Amino acid sequence: MTKYLLITRHPADCAGLQRLLEPHGWGVRPYPVLRVEDTDDAEGWRTANELFADWRESLWLVFASPRAPERFSQQATERGLESMLSLPIAAIGDATAAAVARAGLHVRLVGPGNAMGLAKDLMGYLDPQTPMVYVCGRDRRPELVDALEATGNRIHPLVVYHMRPTPPRELPPLGPDLAAVALTSPRSARLYLESVGGQPLPLPHWAIGPTTQHESAGFGIVCQIPPKPTIESLAEELCRT
């Protein structure tokens, strides 16, 4: 019998995890409590274009989410800024790096799945005061910007998408044979709890990383975390159960 992981992600973001789990008798059941919508950040694009004009030889792009690369590519093309697509890119984690590659962009550095790790790795590539453009969502956490600015560099957010709660009536049914729940962000943890009636399902819960684990505890959800904040590490831990 297949056992299922309920995960607060869109189905399009779950293919890699499904491939890892399927040989071990697990299936993935997406539960997308948040949905992605494009954002028109005119001021952010204006700043990015000015930085590109002044720092063409040393400007970097930074991505922390797989949702950002394709939208960045589309929006740059729509604005006639295709030359920005050749800039070097630092990405947090393998999933984001893979999304960057699928968008036809150039990954120069793949950092570990946390802000401090990427900031530390970037220091080997950047001179002090070098600016970076952080291609991101509207509802972003401050850790990455704080970590990079603490090193003396300037980072300028460019918002290309935002996340909206999925109306409960549009969420899929939970379905049978659930064996675990994976929460992928603090916001998704809160919306998951609301959607299941205010009490966590009586199942083991996993958080992708310590930030989500900590925030989930504040909602009354006790989560385990894998040794590394990656889908691969989560899959390894689930397959041991």
Structure description:
The protein is α/β, with parallel strands linked by helices. The protein is elongated, with a radius of gyration of 19 Å. The mean pLDDT is 92. The protein starts with a strand and ends with a helix. It is built from 9 helices and 11 strands. It has a 6-stranded mixed beta sheet. A 5-stranded parallel beta sheet has the order 2-1-9-10-11. 35% of the residues lie in helices and 25% in strands. The longest helix is centred in the N-terminal third of the chain and has 13 residues, at 42-54.
Topology:
Elements: E1 3-7, H1 15-21, E2 26-30, E3 34-38, H2 42-54, E4 60-63, H3 68-78, E5 88-92, H4 93-102, E6 106-111, H5 115-122, E7 131-137, H6 143-149, E8 154-165, E9 178-183, H7 186-195, E10 205-207, H8 210-218, E11 223-224, H9 231-239
Parallel strand pairs: 1-2, 1-9, 4-5, 4-7, 5-6, 7-8, 9-10, 10-11
Antiparallel strand pairs: 3-8
Helix pairs in contact: 1-9, 5-6
Features of this protein?
single chain; 241 residues; alpha/beta; six-stranded mixed beta sheet; five-stranded parallel beta sheet; 25% strand
Strand proportion, as a percent range, falls in 15-25%
Largest sheet: 6 strands, mixed
H and E string: EHEEHEHEHEHEHEEHEHEH
Rg on CA atoms, Å: 19 Å
* Strand order across the largest sheet: 3-8-7-4-5-6
Describe the oligomeric state of these chains in a short phrase: single chain
* Class computed from helices, strands and strand pairing: alpha/beta
Count of distinct strands: 11
Q: Tally the helices: what do you get?
A: 9
Coarse shape: elongated
Mean pLDDT: 92
| First and last CA, distance | 14 Å
